[in-house]
């Protein structure tokens, strides 16, 4: 397996955790959303970039952006359906102002 290429992100969130209100006092399972997945979603859904533009910003191939979005959507859907925390962290990213 090839090593992951470093992705360039422009929005470096501090450690963020989104927890369902109904699980406030419970120990919930968690889903880890990688920083590159977070950035791909931000670029495509909030900045209205197409996948090709997002790929250039992240310095990866368009198909990689497609896989990151699919992974992020699956993780978020799992968290919403199964009442899990969403943590945004990790990933092979380099922050660029």
Task: Tell me the series of helices and strands, N- to C-terminal.
Answer: EEEHHHEE
Named CATH architecture: Orthogonal Bundle
Strand composition percent: 15-25%
Let me know the number of strands.
5
Number of domains: 1
Reported by name, the CATH topology is Arc Repressor Mutant, subunit A
> What does the main sheet amount to?
3 strands, mixed
Structural class: alpha/beta
Description:
With 97 residues, this protein is α/β, with parallel strands linked by helices. The protein has a single domain, classed as Arc Repressor Mutant, subunit A (Orthogonal Bundle), CATH 1.10.10. The chain is 42% helix and 18% strand. It contains 3 helices and 5 strands. It has helices spanning 35-46, 51-58, 62-82; strands at residues 7-9, 16-18, 30-33, 85-88, 93-95. It has a 3-stranded mixed beta sheet. The chain is elongated, with a radius of gyration of 14 Å. The N and C termini lie far apart (31 Å). The model has no long low-confidence stretch (mean pLDDT 85).
Keywords:
97 residues; alpha/beta; Arc Repressor Mutant, subunit A; 18% strand
């Amino acid at each position: 397996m090839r090593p992951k290429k470093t992705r360039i992100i422009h929005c470096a969130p501090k450690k963020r955790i989104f927890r369902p209100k109904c699980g406030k006092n419970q120990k919930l399972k968690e889903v880890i959303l990688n920083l590159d997945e977070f950035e791909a979603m931000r670029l495509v859904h909030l900045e209205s970039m197409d996948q090709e533009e997002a790929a250039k910003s992240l310095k990866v191939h368009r198909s990689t952006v497609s896989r990151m979005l699919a992974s992020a959507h699956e993780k978020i859907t799992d968290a919403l359906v199964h009442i899990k925390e969403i943590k945004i962290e990790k990933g092979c990213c380099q922050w660029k102002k």
